[in-house]
Design brief:
alpha/beta; Rossmann fold; eight-stranded mixed beta sheet; globular; N-(1-d-carboxylethyl)-l-norvaline Dehydrogenase, domain 2; four-stranded mixed beta sheet
Length: 329
């Protein structure tokens, strides 16, 4: 156990519990991205940080030696880490950073640590995660994050790309905006710039379109992000996928938060040879998040009458690849 700082008493706003005790934040899913949040928050020392993950070797290494980041930042942070949901205390905030395919099981295992004052924020890929989380907790925060990393060893995460995070209320849960502002400020003070938005759908869909245009292309060609962007045929494919996603967002009435093409170029110009998460999954023969990326754009397009043939084709190819690992016959 590691001691933390205690926050001074302050008058709570709507949706906020009384202060005078130490605030706790639980990172649910302490893989690459979750570890970036956990390490920064723990290093800052403003809140008590708990990390929950089923990767036992990683959790045990954090308990023995702390959580190390290297690359875009290099430090070791001390925090509470466990693979047992029964060990988790009541928390003020949750940050869900699991793969989208694990959202339901993760929030089911941890929902008991959140009460009527707690708020849980998704920083996951794709769309649809907030709806699942809202089945189990009162207040949900919609989030989109661009920092990226990869596991180097248990207890050690490579910090590949810095970037901003945007969060906002998940509309169906009527999350008080001061919960969004408080969490954004805490994360920003820890060293990861986080912007609160009253409507975060535009930021989320911009990231969704970016992911759907880059992740499956890299996964199917085995090219890292920069190489896939610079190679003419795959670069054009990404641009065409972006156009399909933009058409769906426009029909939904969502104003995008920037141009996904610029994000693709920014990622391509980053130092190193970053492998997108879907490529990492394919190399490890793990189930991907394609249902929450290209699959989500395809389904929304079907509902709205917007054609998305390229997103459908890439979804079909990735699903076929996944099937080959389970039943090659």
């Amino acid at each position: 156990m590691f001691p933390g700082n205690f926050l001074p008493e302050k008058k709570p706003g709507p949706g906020l519990p009384p202060r005078g005790f130490q605030m706790r934040i639980c990172i649910i899913g302490c893989g690459a991205v979750g570890s970036l949040f956990a390490a920064h928050l723990a290093k800052a020392g403003e809140v008590e940080v708990w990390a929950y993950d089923l990767w036992k070797e990683h959790i045990e290494a954090i308990g023995r030696h702390g959580l190390r980041l290297s690359g875009a930042a290099d430090f070791i942070a001390r925090l509470h880490a466990t693979s047992s949901p029964q060990e988790l205390p009541r928390c003020d905030y949750g940050i869900v950073a699991t793969k989208a395919i694990h959202t339901r099981s993760a929030i089911t295992q941890t929902a008991h640590i959140f009460d009527e004052h707690s708020a849980v924020c998704s920083v996951q890929n794709g769309v649809g995660n907030e709806e699942i989380i809202a089945e189990h907790v009162k207040y949900v925060i919609r989030g989109t994050t661009f920092p990226a990393g990869h596991p180097i060893a248990p207890g050690h995460i490579g910090y590949d790309i810095k970037g901003d995070t945007w969060i906002g209320p998940f509309e169906p849960t009527n999350t008080p905006y001061n919960r969004v502002e408080e969490l954004a400020a805490i994360i920003t003070r820890s060293g990861m710039n986080t912007i609160g938005l009253r409507d975060a759908r535009g930021a989320q869909w911009t990231k969704l379109i970016f992911n759907a245009a880059t992740n499956p292309v890299g996964a199917l060609t085995l090219l890292h992000h920069g190489a896939a962007t610079r190679f003419g045929p795959t670069g054009q494919l990404s641009n065409d996928l972006i156009a399909e996603g933009e058409a769906v967002a426009k029909k939904l009435g969502i104003e995008l938060h920037g141009d996904a093409r610029e994000l693709v170029q920014k990622g391509a110009n980053a130092a190193g040879k970053h492998k997108a998460s879907m490529l990492q999954d394919v190399l490890a023969k793990r189930q991907t998040e394609v249902d929450f990326m290209n699959g989500a754009i395809m389904k929304e397009g079907e509902k709205l009458g917007v054609p998305t043939p390229l997103n459908r084709a890439l979804w079909q190819l990735i699903k076929g690849l996944e099937h080959s690992w389970r039943d090659p016959s």
